[in-house]
Amino acid sequence: MTLLNIILMVFWGLLLLCVVVVIHEGGHFLAARAQGIRVTEFFLGLPCRWRISRTSKRYGTRYGVTALLFGGYNQICGLAGEAPKDTKPVLMALMARGRATPEELSQDVGCTPDEAMNALITLTDWASVEPFYDPEKGEKPSQKTYPESFQTVERDANLYTRFDRASDFSLPGATEAGAARPVEDGDAFYEREKKATYLGDGLVGRLVMLLAGVTVNIVFGILIVTLALMIQGIAVTRDVSVVGEVEQGSLAAAAGLEPGDEVTEVAGVPVATWTELHDALHDALATGADFEIAFTRDGAQERAIVPAEGTGAATLGISASTEQVRLGFVDALAYTFTYLGMVAQMILRLFSPAHVAEVVQSSTSVVGITVMAGQAAAQGFVPYALIAASVSISLGFVNLLPIPPLDGGKVLVEIIQAIIRRPLPEKALLAFNYVGIGLFMLLFIVLLQQDIFRYVLGG
Prior knowledge:
The chain has four domains: 3-76, no CATH class; 87-197, Arc Repressor Mutant, subunit A (Orthogonal Bundle), CATH 1.10.10; 206-232 and 327-456, no CATH class; 236-323, PDZ domain (Pdz3 Domain), CATH 2.30.42. 49% of the residues lie in helices and 17% in strands. The chain has helices spanning 3-34, 87-97, 102-109, 113-125, 186-195, 203-231, 251-255, 274-286, 329-348, 356-362, 366-379, 381-398, 407-420, 426-456, and strands at residues 39-55, 62-76, 99-100, 129-132, 149-152, 234-237, 243-246, 262-266, 269-270, 291-297, 300-306, 318-320, 322-325. Strand 8 and strand 9 (269-270) form a beta hairpin. Helix 1 crosses helix 11 and helix 2 crosses helix 4 (113-125).
């Protein structure tokens, strides 16, 4: 394999993964925005300090690409968990000051600096306040620690931020970041701020956001597969006695058969369909003796001897001819849902100890996806699109597994908390996350090793 082929393969693999990930994260993003939940970042790639981005002036969301392209993420406000008890008074105190340190706010509120800091971190996650990086003190956004001070964010006349759909900065009364904005009705303001986050949404709204990524992945896959079946069609076996393919080193190859030959007779038995050809070959091979076949090639009648005696072969080594049949919308959709059922059934086998090894062996990692994407791209747009659809559907179903950090794991946590009517203890959540991430990483390493032997080392 040449260097150019490797580069092209990596390019097509990355492109496919980027498209699938953007679609998945786009589902989360749109579901959050539709419910009025703030989303501060939308990035293609894993979190990384090396990134290119642009901030939307209308919605405040920062869009961009990071150097680690294997993934993507949304920064939906309020995912960090329950708010500390001092969150509301700290917010009110900072709104009154405009800019302050945790120590100053702790004095205003009557809490410790650490408690004020925890509240500020939560409010930063809500996009209600923001860190203030003072260049005179050598502070900059790229540093790993929070700066000394925090400040209010830019708000319009009605105290909405750029991230809020109801914001209107064309009206007089808007203030810049760091400006004091004392609030009269602190309770109502705090509840509105919380309502604009994942934390402040109800169970149904949270589940919609969590499942939106899975939904758009599966819908995208359904759309692509259905369109491909309607445009390109599927290969359907023709019930005629025409040879489709000839296996190298087989009895058919030894007899001189070629693709396109129309077999008319096997060991003296006339054949006209693939079913008749299959039955006649079975009977002839069962005798263990050489036999004669007659076939038509380019309009000329020919005969050949199949040297079957002593080989013990059970098949001749030919396959049936096929033709592309375009499906109508209803048939294409039905075929697609059959495929969906097969994928779902395979994923469910992960919960069966007897089938885990089988499912893992038939699965692939980023390496395998890259190789398949490169091969499909070389065959044309439709094969490449079908691979993208397959990966998208598989990603959707895998994300439904009740294992963090997958969406299914987060859904399970939300349902458990709704049943017990209180947040799960932090230690329990951490343990659950660690176990899930451990299983996820173990599976990733196994699949990666498997694909390296399969595609790189040729094992």
